[in-house]
Each structure stands twice: as structure tokens, then as C-alpha cells.
Amino acid sequence: MLQIKSYIVLLLLLFSMCVSSQNSANDDPELIQNEINYHIENAQKNLENFSYYEAQKNLDSALKIAENTNNKENIAIIYALKGKLQLYVEEFEQAINSLNKAVEIQRTINDNVNLGKSYKIFGDVYAAKKMYYQALDSYRAAKSKFEEEELHADLADVLLAEGKTYLLLKNYNRARDVIEQSLALARKNDLLKIQSEDLVYHAIVYNKLKNNEKALTLANEGVAIAKQEGFLSILDKGYLITSDIYNELEDFRASRENLKYHIEISDSLAGIKRANYSKAQETQAKLDFALQENAKLSEDKEKAEDDKNLGTLISILSVALITILSLLTLSLYKNNNIRLKTNNMLHKKNGELIIAKEKAELASKTKANFLSTVTHELRTPLYAVTGLSNMLLEENPKPEQIQHLKSLKFSGDYLLTFINDILQINKIEANKVDIEPEPFNLKKKINNIILALNNSAQDNNVKIHLEYDTTLGENFIADQIKISQILINLIGNSIKFTKDGDIWIRIYKIEENDKIYTLRFEVEDNGIGISQEKQDHMFESFSQGSIQINRKYGGTGLGLSIVKGLIDILKGKIYVKSELGKGTTFYFEIPLEYTATEENLDNKTTYFSGNPDDLDLENVKVLVVEDNKINQMITKKILTKMKLNCEIVDNGEAAVDKIKTNKYDIILMDIHMPGISGIEATKIVRTFDKELTIFALTAVTIEDKMHEFEEAGFTDIIPKPFKQEEFEKKLYNALASKKGRSETA
């Protein structure tokens, strides 16, 4: 009897230890996360291998564990992968439902990394449904998140998807630009799979653009990488486009050979998909699962029969187990109360943070809307100020009036510069400045900047010297417009604060990593210099050296703030060295991608540089669509001076009626008018006249509305207030182009 009691006590101790160990293992967050990760990784491998049923099983298992532990991050990831699986099996509506669940959770917990991935899958679903513009919106949302988090591989992948969509929309130039960006990222980060696919789709674009030599080079490079790394899907696509290119080049033997490779790989891939996604496999898997369950039940039954003689012992253990469970329940109850209090506190703080975030976002939007409205309202009267001052200066004013008119013109130009600077700062602070890399000649660009600023330099008796490293190449891929803005601001600043002196501009390489060169740009002058105290705040908005300097030299104090913002966007750094009375040196370092490709001049705007007398202006008719009476008068005066006949209407409906019943050579279309806007009027005109030259006369910020202008079908844009010379050149250029087309026809 004593032996039995000892045996029971020992069993109780062992059982309680096992229960405690089991509970600890079940509650271990690291073990739970490892199990979830295991199922997710297996599901991703299954998707790559077309094993869709196995992928579904792994995702269901992972979701069950994640929901039991309320792991929101993993729940969202699993729903996103379910959406991807449903996309592959063409269950599009189910995919959208799954992705909506993922996005809702990821927005709530601010999981930007996985939110970007969900947006990317959303774009893939819309592209599969042939809803291409919705797909582009999703890809842009994904790009924004990947750029914020600096996820280069994901960014390259979504750029490729965006390029494919533009290809489907037959917007080949845009497709080429986006795929080039993806290819540059893939090469920089050694992403072989994306690089291979980029090259193949780049080849397809160039084939569509009728540049088969370039297309063949790109396709062969992509096929070589895919073949070496075993990327069968990409290799399949690569052989197909290569076959098409050879066929167009009339190399039929090579075309047949590549087509044969394509068919072999295509058949192989189709076989793999059929094998893994067949209903027979799904049924067999379910049958196997049922047999396993039956075997387990049989085993449990045999074990129960073997344990029948231990009934008494089990009863005793049950009492012990109830006691242990009671203690555990009490402990869990206390822990749960603590957890609830903590969660309530966290929810409250989270709610306060969400409200604060929404208020900040609302304030930012209000500021942006305010600036946009103020800009338009200021630019419209500025058109009258600058236009009238120019007209009065050209109409033989009295000698004593000339200086007043010049002062008026200067004030108008200064105010316009100030408005543009404020808008640029606002865009930089709101992260609305996009990087647009393109091939360009750096040395030529700097020489053009110096040429443009040379008149200002001569006014101050300043000589500008360029020292360009002779060992450094000239062609790079970067955002040349932003680099130009930086240099114009810095060189213009040096000219303003230097009298009877020199400015040196130096460019040289300080680091090279593959094709990415880190270049140093220096702008040195021997002007008035900057005190150490002012150097600490000089990159802040509205910062000037002093009140006396502001009065003497002028300026808004925004130039260096804009420079700092643009350099940060280009992932560079800026420094300053200066000493009062001895001069200042600004130097900044930015990464640029070296290229052997020369600057593409096909899409550059060319302005009229010939003689207007060579144009037949007698029969040219211009329609001015403008509701502001002062602006009507100024525009008519300028056109009359150019010897052009013009008619004026003050609303969009009248403009459409006039264009239908009369023949005009040029339309000058205002944007904001009573009734239908200039954009809507232009869209209507384009339904019956695709060739008519229509200029948008607009006081809005061009960059913010460029997409709308392109969609509406405007030929070009003239921002108000415009410089009369540029206005004349654009009109003469349009008339010269029209004359050239008619002569060719």
C-alpha cells in the first residue's frame, strides 16, 4: 500500500512538471513566432513552385496560430499572401477581400513595410483584371512606402510592375523611363532576378519603339542572366521576344531557334502548373489527411484499452489536475486583469496619437491648399503688373517715368520669384518632390548655367572660372533639373555678394562604387563672406546674414534653404567654409550614376530662333479664351505687336462653339473660368480636332497639374505671369512647326 502511495505521489509530481513545461512552451512568444514564420516561408516557397494547395494549407495553419495569439502584424501578412494566392488562381474578388483585410490592419498598426507589399499585390490584381489605371494608383502607393523605408529590392520590383502596366497601355516612352529606373536599382543592389526581367521587358519596349538593335542587345543580356540563374519564367518570355526581334530583322533561322526554346520551356512550365494545381492532387491530399486521422483514432482506441486497468489512478490524478487547473485559472485571471488595464491604457494613448496625427495632417493639407489658392490669386494680378509695365516701357514713356516703370517691373519680378521660392519650400517640406533621373551631359549643363548667369556676373564685374576634372566622364544619369537649381542658387548667391572679384566652380570625383560616382561640387568666391554665427543658421528658411545685408543686397532668404532640401532629396550633403571679408566656399557631394549613353535630345523643347519675318503671319488667327478683362487687353496687345490677328471669348462654352465654326491656328486657353474650365473645354475640342495647337495659360503650379494638362490634350503650357520674350518664342515656335508639317505634307 505504501508503495502504491509513493507511486501516485511521484506520478503527480511528474504530471504537474509536464503540464507546467507544456504551458511554458505554449506561451513562449519566440516559439509561436517561429512556428508562424515556418508556415509563411513554406507558403511562399509553395507559391513559387505553383503548389497552390500546399500553400493554402500552410497559410491556414499560420493564420490559426496568429489569430489565437492576436498577432496583428502576422495576420495582415497572411491575408496579403492569401490575396497573392487567390490572384494566381484567378479568384480576383476573393483576392481583393483578403488584401482589404491586410491593408486595414497594416494601416492601423503603421506597418509601412508590409503595407507597401500589400499595395503592390493590389496593383497586380487590378492589372490582371485589366483595370490598368487603378493598378498604377496602387503601384504609386507602394512606391511611396518603399521609398520611405528605403526597400530597394521592393522598389525595383514595383517599378518593373509599373513599367509593364504602361506597356499594356501602349505608353511606351513612359514604360521605358520607369523600367530604366527599376533596372538601375536592380543593378545597383545586385538583384539578378529583377535585373533579368527588367532587361527582357526593356527589350519589348524598344521593340515597340522600332529600335530592334537596342532591343536585341537587352533581350540577349536578360536571357543570359535568366539562363545562368535558372529563372524559367523570365527565360520563357526572353526567348519569345528574341524570336520576334529576329523575325523582324529577317534572321528567320535565329527566330525559329529561339521560338523552339520558348515552346519547350513554356510546355515545361505548363506541365508543372498542371501537376501542382490539379483537382486530383487536392482530393488525394484530403484523402491522405482523413487516413491519418483514422489511424490516429485507432491508435488512441488501442491505448485507451491498455489504460483501462488504471481507472483508479486516473481518478486520483483527475482530482490533482482539477486542483492545479484551479490555481492556474486564478493566476491567469490576475494576469488577464493586469493585461486589460495595460491594453486600455495603450488604446487610450494610441487614440490620442491618432488624433494628434490627424490634426497634423489636416494642418499640412490646409497649409498646402492655402498656398495653392494664394499662389493663383497672386499670379493673376501679377500678370497684369508685369504685362502692363512691359507695355508701358515699350510705348515711349516720359523720361521721368522710365525709372518708376522699371521699379514697378522689378517689384513684380521679385514678387514672382518670392512666390515660386515659397512653393518650392512647401513642396520639399511636404515630400512632394519626385526624383526624375535621366541621362545628361554634366559639363555641358554647367557651361549652360554659367552662360545664363554671365550677364549678372558682368554687372558686378565678376569673372566665373570652371575647373572640370579632365579624368572625369561627362555623361551621367541623375535628376539634372534639381542639380541645375542647386548650382543656379549657389552661383547666383556668390554673384550677388561679390563685387569686382572671381568665382571658381570645381567638379571632381571623390568616390567610385561600380557605376555610382560620388562627385564634389565647389562654388568659391572672394566676396563679403559670412560670420561664424550666421553660418549655423544659414540653411534655415528666411535666414539672411543681417538686416543691413538684406537691405543692401536684397533676396528672400529662401535660396539656401531650397538648396539644402534638394541636396537631401538627392541623398547628398552640403558644407560651407567662410570668413568675413575673404569670401565663401560652398561644397556639396551627391551620388550620380556614370553612363556611356549620351544625353537624349529627342524630347528636348526647342525654341524658335529664326526671323519672325520668315513666317506668314498675315492669315494666322489666334483665339484667346480668358475671362479677366485686364488680361484680355494685355494678351491682345502682345499678339497685335507680334502682327497676329486674334479674337477673344470669356468662357469655355463659347470657345468650343467658336472652334467648331471657325479655323484657328492657335488657341490660348485660360484654366479657371466661369462655366466649364479650360481643361474641360480642351477635352471637348480634342474629340473633334486632334491637331489644333492649344496652349494652357495658367496661374496654377504647373508641376501639381501636369498630369491633368497632359490628359486633357494641351500642346504646351505657358505659366502666368510669363516673360514676353518666352511667350513670343513659344508662339513663333508653334507656327514654325506647323509650317514645317504643312510643307512636308
TrEMBL record:
Domain Response regulatory: residue ranges: 621-735
Alphabetized UniProt keyword annotations: ATP-binding, Coiled coil, Nucleotide-binding, Phosphoprotein, Signal, TPR repeat
InterPro entries to which the protein is assigned, alphabetical: CheY-like_superfamily (IPR011006), HATPase_C_sf (IPR036890), HATPase_dom (IPR003594), His_kinase_dom (IPR005467), HisK_dim/P_dom (IPR003661), HisK_dim/P_sf (IPR036097), Sig_transdc_His_kin-like_C (IPR004358), Sig_transdc_resp-reg_receiver (IPR001789)
Catalytic activity: ATP + protein L-histidine = ADP + protein N-phospho-L-histidine
Enzyme Commission identifier(s): 2.7.13.3
SUPFAM superfamilies registered for this protein in UniProt: ATPase domain of HSP90 chaperone/DNA topoisomerase II/histidine kinase, CheY-like, Homodimeric domain of signal transducing histidine kinase, TPR-like
Modified residues (4-aspartylphosphate): D670
Coiled-coil parts of chain: 280-307
Signal peptide: 1-25
A Pfam family reported for this protein in Swiss-Prot or TrEMBL: Response_reg
Ranges occupied by TPR repeats: 156-189
Domain Histidine kinase: 373-594
UniProt GO MF annotations: ATP binding
Name the UniProt record assigns to this protein: histidine kinase
Native species: Aestuariibaculum lutulentum
